[in-house]
Design brief:
By secondary structure, the chain is mainly α. It is 58% helix and 3% strand. Strand 1 and strand 2 form a beta hairpin. Pfam families: EF-hand_5, EF-hand_7, MPAB_Lcp_cat. InterPro entries: EF-hand-dom_pair, EF_Hand_1_Ca_BS, EF_hand_dom, MPAB/Lcp_cat_dom.
Length: 475
Amino acid sequence: MTSTSSVPAASPPDSRSALRRSLGEWRIGLVAWRLIVLQAAHPAVAAGMDRYSTYRAHPWRRIQHTVDSGARLFSAGPEERRLEVARLARTHRRIHGTDDAGRPYTAEDPEVRAWVMVTLYEAITAMHELSGKRLRPAELDDLYDEFRDVCAALEIPDEVLPATAADVPPYLERHVREVLEYGDVVRHLLFGILREAPAPRRIGRLAPAWPLLRVAAARTLSSLTVADLPPAWHERFGTRRTRPAAALSWAVHRGVRHVMTRLPEHLRYRHRPSPTADGRPAPRRTPARPASRPRTVDSRRARLEAFFHQVLDQTGDGRVDSADLQAMVHNVCWQLELPVEREDVLYAAFETWWQQLRTAMDADGDGTVDCEEFVSAMLAGVDRDPAYLEHGLVPAVRALFRAADADGGGHLCADEYRVLFGGSRVHPAELNDGFRQLDTDGDGRISEEEFVTAFADFFTARTDAVAGAALLGRP
């Protein structure tokens, strides 16, 4: 389920804003995983995450989206907050269903939304308390007043929120004892996700060592998170705050506080990247990867397997269903900020593509498509029928193009292409290279036919010497 919590990126600290100052400190990251675990323990949040979230397959992208959302809610101006509230409302209206126990859930439930937000406020207070420097009652009141202002912007009813800062601890304890569940999603967050997460882009040349690094990181994060969970959690679910874990928590939180409070503000707080001329955050500079020579063997299977794992399997469970394609559309809509009616067109096109995939590829009839089913059926289909892709993929790609064509001019300019395929998260050299390859006539823009042809070539060309081969990055 989409969350507005975790670790929002902050503007330079505002001395008048207790909320911005607390969220802006780097050390808020120490309680971020604890926050996510508490949120995911709510059965409705867990069901939404299990069904719709991309956190398993794309944890770093999911975190980045959450960071961006938090920045716009808590640190930006009124117009950016208004746009973010509208975007979250569009996202939440699509997250609903029935969980494995037969209980209906919806992301629009006011009590669920209140729980997600209150845990963010509680995480701030926990950050201070665990570090040995509790906030005074007056400071808690100021912090909670600011927090309630954000909840009001999100249209969360007052009656489902704790009335005052003093009411938050009993609210939290009551939910832990009466509402929360220690299910599979929580166990995976605590003990599984980092042991299988892909290497984050930011570690650069350390990526080859990631399989070893993540073992140590996972063990440390699990111990710290379990130790930091509230006492009511341990009483309810029988987890233990062991002495080594308690010592780790004491040393980490207090040590980081003592270090951070002695640093200058530009090192203590996170700052947004300076915007570019068009108002977007400046892209992060990383070394561009050298292009390799095109292969002469049939490379379709490798490309299709990569497409399945990197693009289709959004939920990371090794199988694809309607929720995965909805997650793809959600990611696109997040980038493009489409109005509801244009979002609906895109969702409908991708649902049609899913129905074509299910009908043609679900060989065992279980309602999902695994990687081998996808690759085998796709290769057989494109070899048998030149128009095979016209039945599902091509209409979805055309809808994608028209959604990205912000001015309706029938072409994608470089800026529209960058927004669609990565924005600030992808190195500009890679985006520029992809744009040039798709712009086959060299006129400085990509037509709808060039766009569709590139996708078709990705699925059908036997070599990588085609523009479409670069859709997932340089081959």
